[in-house]
Each structure stands twice: as C-alpha cells, then as structure tokens.
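Researcher: Predict the fold of Small hydrophobic protein.
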Amino acid sequence: MSERPDSEPATAEQAPARAGRDMEERLPPSLWIRLLIYVVVGHLLAGFIYLLFEVGSKAQ
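Model: Structure tokens for Small hydrophobic protein follow.
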C-alpha cells in the first residue's frame, strides 16, 4: 500500500539510467572548452593557410 511519487525511481537500477540520460542531453563544461579551443585554432590555421596562398599568388 505504499505509493511512490513519479519523481522517484522504482528501483535502484533505474537511478543510474536516469543520470546517464541527463548526461546525454548535456555536455560537460570541459568538453565545451575543448571544442571552443579546437574551433578557434582551426580557424586561425585556415586563415594562415589562406594568407599563404594570397601572398604566394601575388609573388608570381
């Protein structure tokens, strides 16, 4: 006769599954920082290569 509210998991096995689902929906902050660094460095590298091609085409 004990009724459980819907917010609590029915068994202990369901609690990690719920935490795992939350982790899938949200990325950790360290991953966002790494992604931002990769995007910035990638754009800087692409800009440098573009600059090399522009300078090389003017030198001919």
